[in-house]
Amino acid sequence: MNDLEDLYRAEYGRAVAVLTRVTGDLDIAEDAVQEAFAAAAARWPSHGTPPSPAGWIITTARNRAIDRLRRETRGRDKHAEAALLAHDDEPHDEGAVEDDRLRLIFTCCHPALAPTARVALTLRLLGGLTTAEIARAFLVAEPTMAQRIVRAKNKIRDAHIPYRVPSEADLPRRIDGVLAVVYLIFNEGYAASSGPLIRADLCAEALRLGRLLVSLLPAEPEVSGLLALMLLVEARRPARQTTGGALVPLDEQDRSRWNTGLIDEGVALLRDHPGPYQLQAAIHAVHSSPGGTDWTRVRHLYDRLLAVAPTPVVALNRAVAVAETEGPEAALRLLDALDLAKYHVFHAVKADLLRRLGRTAEAAEAYDAAIALAGNDAERGFLTARRQTLTGGRTH
């Protein structure tokens, strides 16, 4: 069943995108794909996996969608059924990029939807993430996220939002939401909200979409900035875990294991532009330097980033740079002003600063909070090991 779960992670988004194109209905598309995977789970263990598992899923989902439309229309309206029966390889005048998943992203990122709903819906439909995983990424309760996703799907249906890439003239106005979607897909792949630390399928999907966006808008610096950021972070992935799966922090990684080709590709995309993705990419370029991190440069870049993206998470990352340039006491004062009690990284940073100041009891308490909130196994293991160094192996 692990093979089927892997297929679900890798192909769910593509299957939903294809079915959305041929049905024009997100609910029908998603229901049909889910039914196809359920059928695979029931059939494949006894009959064997078909030669083209992804093709089997899409064909089965398409047939389930046709059956549903036949039941619902009962002969009154055959237009939807006819669309399904048409050849999938017919040309579609739906924008400059003929890519089903990219069309679905632009549909889910329509301005009629709230920004958080755009990202959440696309993560659900394109990445196949569960509602719980998306809720963790947004630091909100699962029922809240479930309501957002349902409302977003209803809005697309009721407002007749088209399934297409916008015209070239409309692309710049629509790109910010799309970039946010791709970045969150990458983040979920690079630091999964539950289970293992890394989901390589999501990282690969985000990079693929990032490259498509650069080909679509090569002159947009923030599009290039996002791809540069993802490439520079992805380049360090081989050194991010031990052979046993333990998390290795940046300052302890074997830099010889980094992918220099990805680093070079990312650096080549950097522009002198004050946008948040270009600035974050520049920060990671400094971290990726063969000679080690220039923390003064990182602090300067975070000052610029905080000016254009004044979020608590950016302020937290800036505090880490302040700790390296001004000391942990100065950084700890900055943390006191941040409202990130539900974010495990906040508590992990606080714990490390308190440890460096010799405030062991407070550090242990902060580590406990971080461990309780951490979603994936590797991060919990790393934090637990750090906490045990404070107490000689004892935990509460």
Automatic annotation (TrEMBL):
InterPro entries per the UniProt record, alphabetical: DUF6596 (IPR046531), RNA_pol_sigma-70_dom (IPR014284), RNA_pol_sigma70_r2 (IPR007627), RNA_pol_sigma70_r4_t2 (IPR013249), RNA_pol_sigma_r2 (IPR013325), RNA_pol_sigma_r3/r4-like (IPR013324), TPR-like_helical_dom_sf (IPR011990), WH-like_DNA-bd_sf (IPR036388)
- Stretches assigned to the RNA polymerase sigma-70 region domain: 7-74
Domain DUF6596: residue ranges: 174-271
**UniProt keyword terms in alphabetical order:** Sigma factor, Transcription, Transcription regulation
- Family in the record: Belongs to the sigma-70 factor family. ECF subfamily.
One biological process term from GO is: DNA-templated transcription initiation
Keyword check for Transmembrane: no
Gene Ontology MF terms: DNA binding; sigma factor activity
> Does the record carry Transcription regulation as a key word?
yes
The RNA polymerase sigma factor 70 region 4 type domain is annotated at 105-156
* Gene3D superfamilies on file: 1.10.1740.10, Tetratricopeptide repeat domain (1.25.40.10), Winged helix-like DNA-binding domain superfamily/Winged helix DNA-binding domain (1.10.10.10)
Q: What Pfam family is a match, any one?
A: DUF6596
Q: What is this protein called?
A: RNA polymerase subunit sigma-24
Classify the source by domain of life: Bacteria
Annotated organism of origin? Virgisporangium ochraceum
